[in-house]
Amino acid sequence: MAPMGIRLSPLGVAVFCLLGVGVIYHLYAGVISSRLAAFRSDSGLSFRRTVDMRDLLAVSVEAAVLGGKEVKTVREENNLKEKSKGKTREGASEPLTLGDLQSHRKMFNLIKNTFPDITVNSEEHDNVVDKVTWSRDIPGDILDKIVGGKEVPTESVTVWIDPLDATQEYTENLVKYVTTMVCVAVDGKPVIGVIHQPFTAFTAWGFVGQGSNIRPRSSYSISPPKVIVSRSHSGKVKNFIQDAFGNGTTIIPAGGAGYKVLSLLEMPASETASTDQADVYIHITFIKKWDICAGAALLKTLGGQMTTLKGEDIDYSDTPLNKGGLVASVGVDHKAVLERLPNWDPEKH
After folding, report:
1. Cβ atoms of residues 160 and 182 within 8 Å
2. Residues sharing a CB contact under 8 Å with residue 53, sequence separation 6 or more, in sequence order
3. What's the rounded Cα separation, in Å, for the pair 69 and 81?
4. Per-residue pLDDT tens for 205-255?
5. pTM above 0.70, yes or no
6. Sign of the alpha-carbon torsion through 117, 123, 128, 129
7. CATH number of the domain at 216-348, please?
8. So what's the pLDDT on residue 90?
9. Peptide bond preceding 224: is omega within 30 degrees of 0, i.e. cis?
10. Tens of pLDDT along 81-103?
11. When comparing pLDDT for 181 and 48, which is higher?
């Protein structure tokens, strides 16, 4: 009898080969993965997520406009549901309205849903999750002026949003002062600023080193200047400003930090009649960074500055409170303004 042999079908051979290749692949992949992890650990390197800054600008504009629609609707329906968050350091009541909350929910969730890895700081807080998503639309004026592809690591980005700036004025129906704002800081420096006026639908934006849809006015003066200040602290700041620039200085009390920054700029003809014009913006007490970051970025884009009363840069990567007061200007000698200010410590007043 002839010896029997083992026969393998073509299918069996194929299966055997595939299993072998699979085992070898997983062993090889495991070795490569371990070596990459060891390399990253030894070298201090890591694979980082990044965000395109033009996309982030477009989302910031969309968020500010979306929040503004909520603010306007609540005010027009007279459904404010006003309550108090407490008192400021100076003893003024801090109102909270449905407009603040509805705007926060849209703005915060739109940005976080689009860029979940970045830090977003908002003036308001709640646990309501809104599934709002970015339209993927980039406005034409942004496409015309801003080049895409400028990527930054997400861990270097901090976004500050103010869902409703000038809430006190909002409750008094002084709506010209009301804005919604978004600011993007990179490594603590303000880079993108968006200030939206819900009741006129005007949106100002700026991207440092890239461009803006707004510009400074053609002329300013600091001899003496028109100084715009908070209407809630007008008594103390009046003496401060007159000591700096003289009794003939024009002092403009106004609500909202966003509005005050816009008062330094050339507004569209349709907005000019409802916006004050100032040469310098000064604040002499504590102020939150979601109030001022967008304005700081906008002014910096246009060659202006926003500093503490002592001329220090403000870090927008850390705690929300700015304790140094502020001086904001564009189109004037910022250092010359600072040199005329009397010695003042906001922490003692």
Report:
1. yes
2. 150, 151, 152, 184, 191, 192, 207
3. 17
4. 999 999 999 999 999 999 999 999 999 766 689 999 999 999 999 999 999
5. yes
6. negative
7. 3.40.190.80
8. 58
9. yes
10. 999 887 666 556 789 999 999 99
11. 181
Q: Which helix (H) or strand (E) holds 161?
A: strand 157-165
255 token code pair: 């609500």
Token output for 188: 């603590």
Find out whether 164 and 170 touch, Cβ atoms under 8 Å. yes
18 is in an annotated binding site: no
162 labeled binding residue:
yes
Mean predicted confidence (pLDDT) in 50-70? 98
Binding site annotation covers 123? yes
Torsion of CA 241, 246, 247, 250, to 10 degrees: -60
Domain boundaries, the chain: 50-213, 216-348
Lowest mean pLDDT among 22-26, 242-246, 297-301: 22-26
164 is in an annotated binding site: yes
Identity of residue 246: G
144 annotated to bind ligand:
no
Q: What class, spelled out in words, does domain 50-213 have in CATH?
A: alpha beta
DSSP codes, 194-241: EEEETTTTEEEEEETTTEES-EE-S----SSPEEEEEGGGHHHHHHHH
* Cα 338 from Cα 300, distance rounded (Å): 17
d(Cα 223, Cα 228) in Å, to the nearest integer?
Answer: 15
